[in-house]
Amino acid sequence: MFVRCLLVPTAAGIDAAPRYEAALKLGRRLGAHISVLYISPTASRHLATLPAVALANGVDLAALQREFQYDAAAGREALSAWCGSKVSPW
Questions:
Q1: H helix intervals, the chain
Q2: pTM of the full predicted structure?
């Protein structure tokens, strides 16, 4: 049985470059594709885990959603930058 796709999970606060490098090396060796999964909690689930003190300090669902969207965009930009550094002229 052949591995055709490698899944690389990542999330906010994780330097994913070493994971991408390992997946690239293994993917080349196996002739496999690489897929990246960015994992982010939903704002409502994250809000449910916060203590009442945080809620009293003005943390709200909209602010959490904006923060998660910012983190996801930063993760996408980091992946694009890493991919851009791997493009060869040949």
A1: 17-30, 43-49, 52-56, 61-85
A2: 0.71
